[in-house]
Design goal:
- The protein is about 50% helix and about 10% strand.
- Strand 7 and strand 8 form a beta hairpin.
- Helix 6 packs antiparallel against helix 11.
- It is globular.
- The termini are far apart.
Amino acid sequence: MFWFWTVAPFVVLVIWLVHMWILECNRFAAHLPKMEPYYPIIGNGLLFIGKPRTVMFDAFIKPFGQFERWFQIWLGPKLLLSSSHPDIMQAVLTHPDCLEKPFLYDFAKLEHGLFGGRYHTWKTQRKALNPSFNVRILNSFIPVFIKCSNLLVSNLEKAIDQGGKTVSVLPHISKCTLEMVCGTTIGYDVLERSGKDTLLHNLDRCFELVAKRMLSVHQYVDVLYRFMQDCAEEAQCRNLCYGYFDSILDSIKNRLKNVNDMEEQEDFKKPQIFANQLLSVKHNGNPFTDEEIAHNIYTIIVAGNDTTALQVSHTCLFLAMHPEIQERVYQEVMEVFPITDQEIEMDDLKKLSYMERVLKESLRLAPSGPNIARQAMHDIEIGGLAIPSGSLIVLSIYAMQRRKDIWGPDADCFDPDRFLPDRSVGRNANALMAFSAGSRNCIGGRYAMIGMKIMLSYIVRRFRMSTKQTMADLTFRFDVTLKLESGYEVCLEKRTMI
């Protein structure tokens, strides 16, 4: 007992001194409102540690709705300057000194690719890979999208015949988008390979653990994290995912060795495989290393599959809740594509104007990438706040796109017509950024829109969707991407084929 009373005051003193030192280092933000409850050293950590993912999501999003502009979130001793104001978000994402990503992205272990790469890595790679998603190449992907969408609706029909009308659409759509992204990224028919269900499970679980670590202060230090069960499970899931694609990448390299004069090939009628671009172009005067190739392949596959699958699933659920909107989409599809399995051209997709508004509204209410973080590379001033170099900034796209002061009192309602020109007059031009903004935005935004339009065209043409869920029933959970805890159950009824 004597030992305790001798040591305890010393420990308290050390904690107090460390706390005061942390506050002094971040004195520039002392006047900003703070997420509560806040405790010395651990900050807001108790809101997240050990909590269910739905609780974590609600706790994290809540202050973005409370504070109009800048406020403080503390993850342990780490200060996160936070905001959901569209002008502040646009200023951060387009600022040339805010192109660095903070340590939180390191947890994904994709630091040699576009997603998690440091500024100088990202800058040269992005410049080299931008042509991989030009209009001609995107047009060459359309046959792949059509093939995969045809298989999707066939599998949904089988699910109805075997298990009843109510179907969880996300697993089916996720397999479709995996096939799409692999067909256009590595040129392989993944669904014909065994293990795709395990692959999708491991991808989901791996990034679930990454997201959990982002809000778990006690897991930040690598030395400590290695002794935790989450680390072992994450490593197992990651290794299984990497192993699935490593043999495919070896095959691609061997295939490319037999192709002469790659740079002279201009046949854009055939899909221009992303992996071929990685293996044939240079960045900063050097070819992509094996590690850079692997990290970019994994990034494109994970991002292209998970985000697109979630967005189409969210849209199906929204359409199932709103049959009148669903019918308008169906009628438009029938006008643009009156003949079953007719050839689809890029110009045809541009005619789907109402579907585009539906997708924008879906992206507004349920952006697949709900939050984004940046790190100041130099001293800057944004939104009236002088921000020192090295400061961490967290922005909520999800919260911004539901702000009632921007979108009106019905901001939580699904209304595609809010994107009509006359209703958009006077709205903040920065209020929708589902694919991020600035030069470090999503490289595959146009790719995703084309794929989603084709998938939805096939789904609404083949099925009438309904659900008992309402918008108020939707419960999201904290993850790298936006996922529903309440599920993606939709009742499918076959339409009469024309």
